[in-house]
Amino acid sequence: PIEVKKIVCIGAGYVGGPTCAVVALKCPHIQVTIVDVNQSRIDAWNDPDFNLPIYEPGLVDVVKGCRGRNLFFSTEVDKGIAEADLIFVSVNTPTKKSGLGAGFAADLNYIELATRRIAEVSTSSKIVVEKSTVPCRTAESMRTILEANAKPGCRFDILSNPEFLAEGTAIEDLFAPDRVLIGSLQSQEGLDACAALANVYANWIPKERILTVGLWSSELSKLAANAMLAQRISSVNMLSAICEATGANVDEVAYAVGKDSRVGPKFLKASVGFGGSCFQKYSLNLVYLARSLNLEEVARYWYAVVEANDYQKNRFAKKVVDTLFNTITGKKIAVLGFAFKADTGDTRESPAIDLINHFLSERARVTVYDPEVQESQIMLDLTDYGAKPAEPIQKAVTVCPSALEACKGADAIVVVTEWKEFVNLDWQSIHDTMNKPAFIFDGRNILKRQELKNIGFKVVSIGTGDRL
Ligand code: NAD
Ligand code: UDX
User: How far is the CA of 233 from the centre of ligand 2 (A)?
Assistant: First the structure.
């Protein structure tokens, strides 16, 4: 079997960083180098005080355990590639903004650039692992590019090894994944490469959790897993609308449904809508794939998952306005949480962005507090990275250092992210400072509804027909 001694990971982001740091921790005999073209990101990974570029519980301890031992962060991409015998490609694959498939298809430019770089600087054979999430048959394109540009004597074996970690629990997920999926060509060389990568994971993952399949199945499984999780949330959110109209309680419904072992209890929490860099993107990738295969009904099915999510976000924003006597002009709305979920500082596709945009279009004043998101990031998101003029947004939005500060004098509080600290705030003191009637919109159904009502709050939750 091929023995992997040196690994390089191209892309030091949310996936490449934590994934390969865990590989280094669990495999002290393998040298792992994570490279990126982004100097400030690499500097942060090398920060002497461990102020790492991403916030993820447990990550600092992993990096402390092996940085400088067998884990290195560097901008020397070419050197990293040249030395490695296995290369993880973990670059970003955003949705295309223009051209064919704009708004749906994945932009594979970064993958192609990284692939061409690998072909150009490699002087020995490599196993190239597609870690980024990519449309089906991308491995085929990578192989064509590599083979067309390979130096004499260099062979490239391509594997697909999609990553299933969720942000906020990345380290837990990487330590004990439900499964690791490796796709390869079913040729002898492909199977050998697959075995080499499986042996790396076998250093800490039980063999029965390492699944090996064909390349295309592996690529499609990643899109499918994400789209099916997104579909579960959209399903429960669409039930939440029925609950609100009938007086049923969506948490009770989800509990009852989830008790069926065929359905299972996880990922059935109704919410203001899902966010994050993955669910919407991969559902749309699947829609695009189906369309390009002329499977219009299939495309429509998966598109409905995304439409339902947009509907849920709009429905919630509209409920805030309706409840505040049909106008929020000049009113102060305190938004608690800006990250797309708890335990991360990531704001990509966060429902908070859409909600605040809605409130601003109704000319409300907005205060925001999030324990992990910086003011500069909030402004980038609200101005759509500079596409909208900053001044009116800066005038209307204030980012606050605490929840208490954000809620002072507010007409309504809107909980968007399920940060634990929001559950046990000093709600009595907050109520005292607010305009009356004091409204709370719990976009995550995490607050203690009865206690808040006892204090005097008017509480609106997701998926309950209860009176205020
Ligand atoms: P990211 O934007 O955080 O990181 C990607 C990094 O790659 C960036 O720092 C960028 O500078 C670097 N990069 C791009 N081209 C490069 C090149 N040619 N050479 C060196 N560095 C280069 O993205 P991410 O969230 O880590 O996602 C990476 C991939 O993993 C994507 O395909 C994503 O869809 C997938 N994924 C993400 C998650 C998640 O939770 N974020 C989970 C599973 C899979
Ligand atoms: C997701 C997948 O879970 C992971 O396997 C994949 O590798 C990347 O995409 P991530 O987006 O990081 O991970 O977080 P996830 O926990 O899946 O949450 C996504 C969104 O759904 C968040 O906005 C979350 O708040 C929301 N959500 C999740 C719900 O609204 N209800 C739920 O029951 C679960």
Answer: 9
